[in-house]
């Protein structure tokens, strides 16, 4: 009886331990989920922070064609731009942190949690199954024990009944025999119950021993190992959390070093010189103010304006040409007509600017127009070469088909040349001299000078009579007209490159990949080729580099060669070809 109570007590205690372990392991899973959520929120913060930093950097980037872009010539403004660029890279490192946190911790913990829950469920399922098994075995033992007890009592009662019947002389011999057989039967049943009970007891003791010394310890050991792996996994994740930050520190340090270097590159003296250079007017300082005698017998000589300092310094005086000299701006006097003084606005000849600023603007304009002329001439040269190829090989294309475009380009070039001459005249006016026939044209590209052989005389009214504005803005006057003479050279119609008579097969100097498809003409066999059709992504051999005309000569195989637009292919030259 005592043994049975002890067994029941142990079972209850074991059940309580399973409940405690179940609660503890569940709290461990919840801790991992909580830590994973913490890392996820940190990742979201990093992404948000990086986005805000990028937006901040973009917000303060100088706008195109704005005053901020002009100010980039100052070292302080360039340093600030470098800081913004470094800040953008700095934001990228926070995005890297977010990506690594997600891939190395959040994703891994999510997968591990799924495995952990499945393992925990399996272990507790095995524990409950073992408990149910031992409880079932205990119930069978108790049942056989009660049956054995009941059969023993029945056997005792049958034995006592037989003994009473045997002692009674009034009972017949048949009744006594019947009672004796009944007693024997009950004793046999009791003996069978005893055997059954003994078997169940042996079985239960074996199962109980296995339960407490093998099954349950193994389950507890697995739960312990599972819990230790969970704790170790959390530790690894925490270490990774720190390493993710540490990995970007070198690049973050470089960003900060870049900001420091940008700050150290600021040169106050250089910036101040830039300001002087940008706003240098070119005006001569005003002369001394003459004494005006208002004494007796003196004629009163009044100035143009008694209340205007600038006008009083620039009194109107007659010039030999009959024009009036304009009043010079006095330093630090504000111009009321502010709109007319904005850089980039005003007359085409920039006459609203001070001489030095006007000279710079005119020079910049001439350089821009010369670049456009160069571009048009390059395109014209390429079309001229193509026309030459068509003339030699009519089956490749109609030479007349390119004539309208050549005419259009020639007209554009003449128009641009006229613009250059006009601005050259204004520039000569500012610099106080005019270009002469013996003087080579100023600020013109060599290409422009070599395009025409016949000399042309261009009459350009560079200087026009311009009165001084009431508010004192700068103007210049010149009564005589200026004639600008520019010598223009003719260009040969065809380039020597296209004198492709009998020539040897050109060696391969590299390869190229077609970036876009190009519809050319079907190439001829041999070596007299024009354009060649290519498809996007096609690989070809390069046999002649672009010589400035915008065309590259390629070969598909031994019998297919031709020219393709350089901008349509990506060229990979061999090392010796690059060096040459």
Automatic annotation (TrEMBL):
Residue ranges, compositional bias (Basic and acidic residues): 433-442
Highest taxon listed in the record's lineage: Eukaryota
Broad class of where this protein is predominantly found: membrane
Pfam families (UniProt xref): FCH, HR1_TOCA, SH3_1
InterPro entries in UniProt: AH/BAR_dom_sf (IPR027267), F_BAR_dom (IPR031160), FCH_dom (IPR001060), HR1_rho-bd (IPR011072), HR1_TOCA (IPR057870), SH3-like_dom_sf (IPR036028), SH3_domain (IPR001452)
Region annotation (Disordered) ranges: 302-329, 433-483
Cellular compartment(s): Cell membrane; Cytoplasm, Cell cortex
Residue intervals of the REM-1 domain: 352-429
SMART domains given in the database record: FCH, SH3
Family of the protein in this entry: Belongs to the FNBP1 family.
Name the UniProt record assigns to this protein: Formin-binding protein 1 isoform X23
Species in which this protein is naturally found: Salmo salar
Taxonomic lineage of the native organism: Eukaryota, Metazoa, Chordata, Craniata, Vertebrata
């Amino acid at each position: 009886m005592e043994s049975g109570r002890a067994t029941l007590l142990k079972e209850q205690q074991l059940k309580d331990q399973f409940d405690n372990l179940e609660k503890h392991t569940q709290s461990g899973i919840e801790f991992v989920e909580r830590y994973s959520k913490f890392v996820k929120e940190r990742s979201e913060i990093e992404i948000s922070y990086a986005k805000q930093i990028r937006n901040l950097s973009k917000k303060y980037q100088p706008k195109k064609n704005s005053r901020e872009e002009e100010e980039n010539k100052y070292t302080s403004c360039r340093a600030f731009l470098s800081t913004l660029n470094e800040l953008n890279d700095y934001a990228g490192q926070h995005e890297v942190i977010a990506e690594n946190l997600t891939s190395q911790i959040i994703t891994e913990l999510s997968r591990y949690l799924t495995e952990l829950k499945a393992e925990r469920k399996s272990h507790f399922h095995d524990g409950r199954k073992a408990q149910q098994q031992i409880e079932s075995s205990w119930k069978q033992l108790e049942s056989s024990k009660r049956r054995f007890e009941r059969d023993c009592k029945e056997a005792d009662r049958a034995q006592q009944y037989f003994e009473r019947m045997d002692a009674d002389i009034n009972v017949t011999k048949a009744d006594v025999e019947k009672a004796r057989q009944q007693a024997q039967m009950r004793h046999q049943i009791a003996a069978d119950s005893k055997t059954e009970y003994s078997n169940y007891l042996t079985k239960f003791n074996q199962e109980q021993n296995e339960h407490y010394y093998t099954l349950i310890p193994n389950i507890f050991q697995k739960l312990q190992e599972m819990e230790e792996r969970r704790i170790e996994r959390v530790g690894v994740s925490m270490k990774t959390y720190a390493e993710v930050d540490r990995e970007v520190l070198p690049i973050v340090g470089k960003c900060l070093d870049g900001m420091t270097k940008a700050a150290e590159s600021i040169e106050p003296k250089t910036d101040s010189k830039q300001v002087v250079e940008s706003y240098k007017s070119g005006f001569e300082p005003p002369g001394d103010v003459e004494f005006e005698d208002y004494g007796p017998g003196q004629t009163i000589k009044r100035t143009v304006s008694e209340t205007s300092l600038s006008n009083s310094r620039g009194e109107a005086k007659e010039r030999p040409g009959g024009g009036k000299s304009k009043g010079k701006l006095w330093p630090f006097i504000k111009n009321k007509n502010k709109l007319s003084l904005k850089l980039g606005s005003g007359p085409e000849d920039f006459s609203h600017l001070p001489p030095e600023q006007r000279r710079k603007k005119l020079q910049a304009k001439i350089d821009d127009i010369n670049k456009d002329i160069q571009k048009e001439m390059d395109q014209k040269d390429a079309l001229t070469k193509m026309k030459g190829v068509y003339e030699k090989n009519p089956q490749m294309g109609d030479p007349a088909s390119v004539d309208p475009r050549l005419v259009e380009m020639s007209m554009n070039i003449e128009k641009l040349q006229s613009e250059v001459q006009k601005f050259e005249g204004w520039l000569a006016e500012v610099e106080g001299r005019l270009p002469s026939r013996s003087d080579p044209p100023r600020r013109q590209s060599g290409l422009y000078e070599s395009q025409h052989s016949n000399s042309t005389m261009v009459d350009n009214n560079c200087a026009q009579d311009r009165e001084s504005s009431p508010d004192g803005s700068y103007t210049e006057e010149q009564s005589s007209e200026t004639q600008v003479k520019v010598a223009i050279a003719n260009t040969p119609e065809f380039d020597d490159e296209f004198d492709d008579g009998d020539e040897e097969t050109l060696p391969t100097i590299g390869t190229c990949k077609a970036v876009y498809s190009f519809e050319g003409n079907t190439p001829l066999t041999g070596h007299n080729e024009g354009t060649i059709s290519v498809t996007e992504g096609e690989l070809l051999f390069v046999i002649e580099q672009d010589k400035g005309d915008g065309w590259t000569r390629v070969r598909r195989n031994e019998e297919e060669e031709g020219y393709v637009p350089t901008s349509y292919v990506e060229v990979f030259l061999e090392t010796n070809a690059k060096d040459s």
